Prior knowledge:
Layout: H1 19-23, H2 30-47, H3 64-86, H4 98-104, H5 112-131, H6 135-138, E1 141-144, E2 147-150, H7 151-173
Antiparallel strand pairs: 1-2
Helix pairs in contact: 2-5, 2-7, 3-5, 3-7
Amino acid sequence: MTQPxxxxxxxxxxxxxYAAYIxxxxxxxxxxxxxxxxxxxxxxxxxxxxDKLDHRYAPGKWTVKQVLGHVIDAERIFSYRALRFARGDxxxxxxxxxxxxxxxxxxxQRPMASLVEEYRHQRLADLALFRSFDEEILGRxxxxxxxxxxxxxxxxxxxxHERHHVRILRERYL
Length: 174
């Protein structure tokens, strides 16, 4: 029998926009990947020199600290959606405008250690929640941004979204 956390979401379980993120998640146990990401991302963030934290690879692009803040914000929103859908809440949820979130954030003024600690706590809380989900819960659905998602897809989106941004950090910032 397939473990609930190893079955990939079907294409019908998420909006088209998220296919690129889910496509970045390798086969295997997505919860193990989330754990591995926690360790490797903590190592990555610790290795970034202080003079690079406010670096932008092009005008109008986010700084390293802003990218990390965005990853935290997005994970928090995706996990909140997963919790709502897992608990059977059928209330349609609004979308997230990442530029509005960035404009309202103070990531540039925060110490990197504070952002790293927030990331660590968010991921650990999500892992505890997601480990409690069985196959039936992972298959539950809800609406966000006018689209249908399963809980499973949201877990995969979190993993793929982080992979996407870590790749960009490595390629364009470091």
